[in-house]
Amino acid sequence: MAALILFNKPFRVLAQFTDERTAAPRRTLAEFIDRPGFYPAGRLDYESEGLLVLCDDGKMQARIADPRFKLPKTYLVQVEGEPDRASLDRLRCGIELKDGRTRPADAETITDPCLWRRDPPIRVRKTVADSWLRITISEGRNRQVRRMTAAIGHPTLRLVRWSVGDWTLDGLGVGEWRTVAATLPLR
User: pTM for the complete prediction?
Assistant: First the structure.
């Protein structure tokens, strides 16, 4: 039976086990996970944090990552400024990006989720407020959430993936992981 690893990926860690860059190697999954045969099911940017799902079964891995199956991914997003209703409605209708229109997203303003400290912390500007959003998408384009918030005039300061499908970060500290049975929710 296939298994999954749910990993709370720290900021500035590659979502892969090796770094081809030799001049200034970056931190990788190998620093945290010593389980041969597990590979990431999808991507999570170097500058992003949160849930990364790894799988030991290729078919399951493809099913989790493939946007055709519309597995929802929820992000907690700290943005510059305070988006108004019209801005959130644009996210809910889909945003036109250079690579085409996104699918509609669930988007709402939330209170500060009181997450772990990030090292280094985000850039804070005394003259510009920041706020938190919960954004759920069902596709996974390169840097999609960051590009969506920038398109509505609220650049992302911090991006934490909280869930993929029914799998969440609940109970996982930064850099921690656990194995779970590989049962894919069918949506």
Answer: 0.93
